[in-house]
Amino acid sequence: MMEDFFLNQLGGLEDTGLGTLVWLIWLGFMMLFLFYPTMSQRIQLGYMLRDLEKKLVRLKLAKDEVRDRAIDTIKRVGKPEKDPTQDIDKLMEFFMISPESMDPYGIVYKLEHILEIGESKFEEEIKKLSPAAEEYKVKTLANLLEVARTTNYLYRVVRHYYLLGKKTANIYLILQLQMLMPQLMEITEALRLASYAFAYGQPIGDGIGVLAVAKLAYGKEKARYEIARDTTVSEIDFENRRVLIVRATGPGGTVGRPGEGVKKLIEREGDNVKLIITIDAGLRLEGDESGKMVEGVGVAIGGPGIDKYKIEEIARERQIPLYAFVIYESIVEAITPMKEVIAKAADSVVEKVKSVLLEKVPAGSTAIVAGIGNSVGIG
Amino acid sequence: MEGFQPSKMLQKYMSPITFLTCTSCGTENSRAFKEDDYVFKRTNEVCPKCGKNELLIVGIYVKEKEKKT
Ligand SMILES: [Zn+2]
User: Fold this and answer.
1) Domain that holds residue A276
2) Is A58 close to B6, i.e. CB distance below 8 A?
3) Structural domain tally of chain A?
4) Which residues between 8 and 67 in chain B have a beta carbon less than 8 angstroms from any beta carbon of chain A?
5) Beta-carbon contacts of residue A68 (< 8 Å; ≥ 6 apart)
6) Which residues pair with A231 in a beta bridge?
7) CA–CA separation, B63 vs A248, rounded Å?
8) Which residue in A206, A338, A341, A374 has the most chain B C-beta atoms within 10 A of its own C-beta, making it the best mutation to test that interface?
9) Distance A94 CA to ligand 1 centre (A)
10) What pLDDT does A273 receive?
11) Can you tell me the ipTM of this complex?
């Protein structure tokens, strides 16, 4: 009989003493989980930490790769007299402290002030490191350093929470970090690819707004001048309407000051301005199609909000309608070399802007079209 | 617990293509991106069709891979 067989087996084990041992081990485990309920959590924590460690190594590799690319590019383009490695490492730790928001009055201008000093300082340092680089290339190099700085910061933050979680054996801390990891890895990967674009001066997805207005202006320009720092105005005539096109000055990597530019133009033009159109890349939702253009009202400008604020304020004051076009992109597409579907969207944006100008701007009056985004690789 | 594969994360960098148009005959052609290229730059490369040496860069972007159907 089957049962007898098993009983005999057990009996046999008991004879050797092994059975007792197995029972004791079993009992030990039971007691362990009974009186030490965090045991399973500890095992899980161990697994999670190992997983995070692997990802942290990957972040470090990406960070080092971007740093090395920044150093190589500065050496190649800027031809510094001495080794720039030390100065670049210093710039990678550079920080800006955002203004105190306890009393929010005037915070936009405080923020603008700090960002402007930061940007100037950054560019100044890079200019010193790159005596051979042209003015516009210094701006692109500053972008590259900014990418290196962000990668470095992301790595340090992740490392901080990893080490803290490990030190305190805090599974909830580790759990939160692990939940965020896929997005952080994606952003780091995007930054890694962005470093190529800025190292060689290639247009990125975020430049679609600039590209669209550059196409709108090309060949029709009556005047071109700088209205604010790194910001160019191109004047064109379109079907008896005066169109002032505002964009970042290319082909260096900069986003310019479209807010300041539009504000100055309106102050100069007075009530002739009948419409403001902004064109920008917008973050698409998962499942949306890249390169799809959508339209709406308001000011389409991302970033810290200074430019958006300035345009909204003056538009409200003068009662000028705000029209916006957004081209969908993912966060990765926005900072990596421009994809075909996005570049192709520029032509349809131009056509659409033209029809809006015809429809909403009376003949003989003026409209402002602002192409928002980074002008790297777009002249 | 699924392990993390670094190879999965590593996206390959795709260098963009530069698209040029001849300013006198309008012939379009393309080549790999070269440093210092930018959109609306006039280069003094020679047109393969009419031989004039002024080409205008009209686009720089990454060609998408053909989708499998
Ligand atoms: Zn030709």
Assistant:
1) 205-371
2) yes
3) 3
4) 9-11, 13-16, 33, 35-41, 59-64
5) none
6) A228, A248
7) 25
8) A338
9) 49
10) 95
11) 0.85
